[in-house]
Amino acid sequence: MIRVLIERHVASEMEESYRAMLHEVRRDAVHAEGYISGETLRDHDDAHHYVIISTWRSRHDWQQWATSADRRAAMERMRPMLAEPEHVTALEPV
In angstroms, what is the C-alpha Rg of the chain? Predict the structure, then answer.
């Protein structure tokens, strides 16, 4: 099992569009092979900083989703909403 931490900084004028997009991406991810769970958090001190934490059965399952046509298409639409590129970290239990 792994957890994936995704950090995104959203452009202030794109907040509403980004939140709608999050629901779309989550809906698709839930059906991906190996997806276990996920949650989206917003930084208390920086309302434009979002953290997505998802749990996957394996690194392979995450990589399959990360490189899937669905996620790539979603990221193409989401990229203009971001103030900077997303930062992804895959974490394994110790």
Answer: 13
List 41's β-bridge partners, or say none.
51
Mean of all residue pLDDT scores within the chain: 95
Q: What is the pLDDT of residues 13-56, one digit of tens each?
A: 999 999 999 998 999 999 999 999 999 999 999 999 999 999 99
CA dihedral 36, 18, 88, 76 (to 10 degrees): 100
In order of their start, the domains of the chain are 2-91 (3.30.70.100)
Q: Where are the beta strands (DSSP E) in the chain?
A: 2-9, 35-42, 49-56, 87-91
Whether 71 contacts 86, CB under 8 Å? no
- Give residue 54's pLDDT: 97
CB count within 10 Å of CB 56 equals 25
Pick from 70, 75, 85: nearest CA to 8: 85
